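OP here, attaching both records as promised.
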Amino acid sequence: MAEFIRARRPEQKEQRLDEIKGTVRRQFAKRPYHEITLTTIAEELGWSRANLYKYVTTKEEIFLLLTADECDAYFEALLAALPEGHEFAPAEAADAWANVAAEHQEYFRLGDLLTTIVETNVTVERLMDFKRGYYAHVAEMREHLPQVIGIAPEHVETLLLAVYYHATGLVSSCWSNPLIAEALRRLEIERPETDFRAEMRDFVSMCLAHYEHQ
């Protein structure tokens, strides 16, 4: 094991957290959540668990940090895809939004764990940081979306949540679960392929059509 040198300065601590998040991101791409532990994380980093505890106390804290990063990336991409100075037709906006959702499926995959698992085992300080960042994005969208898609400001948060929860449900069906695959095989039930982008385009289009008349 390489010698571990504890970070002292804030930028060093951020670098350590980036290393931790990178390790968890790689593991989550290859294995289910329940197979990732502080031990598997520490082993890949070449650290002891005691050293890992200097930065995080639970794996859920790491997943919350990952979710915050993905949340930032998703909203930044959405702003770029629906820029100010152009009023989008519903079909055009739905297409652009679906592209962003398809490119940021990791945000929704993490969202599948967020409320029931991740947010139940983190410090209130970590959770406050996460919620502060999320609601800052919501506030920005409440200002931005009415200018480009004609939605009333009071409906923006509801629209964002509808899209988020639909995408979270869809993305879990796009990931292969060997147990589900085996159960359906034995039942002789064919599982249809899910076109995530197309499904999201249709759903966003439906939502925008609804709010067009509100």
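Record two, same layout:
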Amino acid sequence: MCIIAVEAPSGSDAEPAVDDGPADTGDGSSCWLDPTKQYASGVEAQAVPCEQDGMWWSNGYGCYFRALEPQPDPSDPAWGGRDPADGGAIYECWQPFTDYSVYLWLANPPERSGQGPSPRAVAEIAVEQMNLTAITIGIVPEPGAGSMGIVGMPVWMWAANPGPTTVGPITESASAGGVTVTATARIHTITWSMGDGTTVVCRGAGTPYDASRGDAPSPDCGHVYTRTSAGQAGGVYTVTATSDWVITWEGAGQTGTIRMGDLERSTQIAVGEAQVLVTQ
């Protein structure tokens, strides 16, 4: 008897582990101009500084506020006939894009929008609602007793449960603190740690293997082992698939991107060498 290694078509391993996805854009501003507000009509939705010239921004009104100091005389029309002793105050509402100011009596100070959640924080609420999960690993050779891959033969990897929560796309909206954000998540890559020191980066869910493929390599997500798993713990390679998601969000007059790459799942496969019995 002799042991030989079988040479087979080599499946192209992954693309290099280079991140070419969009960058994470950070929090965005919790202060933004809503053109539907009374004092912001005709101005495009956009982020604004939360404070300017000693005034604070109100998303609800679409303008900067300050309490007048000193307060106007009780006979001033801004009071609308109210007695200052009954409470409330006169505030300036300044719209910087039109340079238009109005003076309003308000029982309570208008909200300081800079103290509210950022658009990204609201987008993260939407992401939580998506219930994104790690993929179920599809791989040939299959895991489990009685299944063994062969050194030099193509290995196929894929997401066995492709769907909105495992590879996307999926869209959710969330609201908090007067900010509404819509987020859409899509899988960017799946990074496969093959257990032999090799990392394979595949785009998308991969292609499921079926018997008609024979010993052909995977068209989009494959690997070839060059040594057996005999020296590994338990005599198997531990294969881990880590999902890299790109989540784009839009809201509060802004857009942004969240990167998420902490969803992973593992399985184990055995890889041996072909044994050929030579008789004389």
